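Troubleshooting: if your tokenizer reports a length mismatch, compare your output against this known-good record of 186 residues.
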Amino acid sequence: MAFGWGIWILLAVLVLIVLILIYYFNRLVVLNQRIKNSLSQIDVQLKKRADLVPNLIETVKGYAKHEKSIMEKVTEARKALMGAKDLVGRMKAGNSLNNAIGRLFAIAENYPQLKANENFLNLQNELAAIEDKIAYARQFYNDSIQGYNMACTTFPGLLFARIFGMKEQEYLKIPEAQKAVPKVSF
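Known-good structure output:
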């Protein structure tokens, strides 16, 4: 009789171990998928920004015909963003596009009719909203990375991450140029 109970206890322990393995594997997979989804959301917002650029350029062109170089820079930056293949490339191209759009808005300051143009104002507001969404998507991405990394580096998740070959992932970093304190002068 004691031998029969020993088998049942061994089977119960094995079932418990299998259930724990399944739980941690699924947890790590879900966290990894959340990272992929959040990265996809960044891409969606970057594409929305890039899609707005041609409309913005067309609106500004009519007013600032002699500002051709900035229009070319914005167009080149948009092409670079649309052609970027990896996260680092997309982030670099997105930052270039953002800088070029900033210069475009600075030029618009010289054209009061353009600043008052309803299409321009709508595009400017839409771009501002997209920038907020990009910032949120980046934050969500880093939050997802944090959750995943914590699951991979704390006990007992650390053991299961090693068993399944899952490693910590890198946070999305802000380029040094964007960390600089802006200079404001009056």
